[in-house]
Amino acid sequence: MAYPLSNGSVTSLSDILSYTDTVNWIIGATKTGKTTFLSHFIGSLPRGKDIYVLDTSGKYVDNELAQIESVKILPIDSQLNEECLEKLPPNSFVIVDDFQLLTKTSQWQRVINYCAHHFHLSIFLVVHSHQNTEGLHYALKNACNIYLTYSNNSKYFLKSLAHGKYFNFFCKHWREGIQNKHICFINTYQSVIISYIDKLLFNKLQSPVEMSDMTDMDSNTLGDIEEKRWIITNLSGNQTKDNSLSNTVSNEHDLEGHFYKELNVSYSKQQFPKMFKITRCLLKKGVLGQDELILGKENLMDFLAFTQRFVTKQKESKSGSDESVTEFRSFGFSNVTSRNKNKKPKKSKKDKKRWKRLCHALIQHGVTIPLTLLKNPVAKKYFQ
Question: Could you give the angle at which helices 349-364 and 300-308 cross, rounded to 10 degrees?
Fold first, then answer.
């Protein structure tokens, strides 16, 4: 099923909910539905799937997860580390309960940053509170997939996630969520929140599920958010309340999936969300093609580099010599220093005109890019 996001760009529900080869977080207080959700999740997996539970507290011995035939309980002395996980078959499903009890920071950070992707594991870390483990709050704020029960622990965490932009949506669905022990889902890379993800995953759509895209427009101003919502009432077809989906939308969806994969490989986890959001701004106006050319002229990667490039600065040596230090900042993420003797940095007038023409052409096509996504002051000036 495809849904339009951010005023025209389209992504699929399966892309938003993808949990494979990554670490997924489940947050919530005791007895708010975490175990029940995982039990249903396991029941929805394909037959023959290797499913493991790392039991750090012993409580799985007598509960419903232990009764599932496909679940294997790892030894109680097992640790969440590379040595343990690399022994598991690829494409395994791994659940770690009471994650805050595992306090060796270096071990679980290695799991988050390396093991899940390279060993092709779907890891679910169950957290009762984000406050009791060193570095856990930071890891959660940088996570992609977050599942939350409707509990005070979740509410408290959402106040600090992305300047609290998901908080009001969560509170809006609080009453039904807490009464029926529903699960809320957030994909932070896509800035998407879904009210009751358990209804979608387990086909229990007796009542509608709400989904909202909350792409940042200005992260410096709390609450200044571009938001668009859909009511999901039926998963049997491709219908939503927005009946404007067409072949054009389908093509945009294919393109967005293509660039999502390309950019995800090309950029780090820190860089990727910003680069993908800029790309979506281009896709929704139809100015970016499968050939990765903008308006058939400029390469996408070159344009992204331009939007993130700081102004080149020249620093004169204090010794008074002819030697100068030129500092270049590329993509807005790293600094590279080079020494040039008797040379001054040359500004290419041709290059300046090239990007000016492109930016003006994009504006004429209706392309708008939030200034918070741009680090190059020249680019900011063009799109202001």
Answer: 100
Hey, is 194 helix, strand or coil? strand
For position 21, what pLDDT does the model report? 86
Q: What is the pLDDT of residue 169?
A: 92
Give me the pLDDT at residue 261, please: 81
CATH 3.40.50.300 domain locations along the chain: 2-232
The C-alpha atoms of residue 108 and residue 35 are separated, in whole angstroms, by: 22
Candidate CATH numbers 3.40.50.300, 3.90.400.10, 3.50.50.60, 3.90.1170.50; the one for domain 2-232: 3.40.50.300
Residues facing 328 on adjacent strands: 336
pLDDT at 216: 56
Query: What does the block give as tokens for 137?
Result: 């709050």
Structure tokens at 240: 């939503």
Confidence of residue 46 (pLDDT cuts 50, 70, 90): confident
Question: How big is the CA angle at 33 (ends 43 and 136), to the nearest 5 degrees?
Answer: 100
CA–CA separation, 382 vs 384, rounded Å?
6
Q: In a 3-state reduction of DSSP, which class is residue 355? A: helix
- Give the C-alpha separation, 325 to 337, whole Å: 7
Whether the per-residue pLDDT at 338 is higher than 50: the answer is no
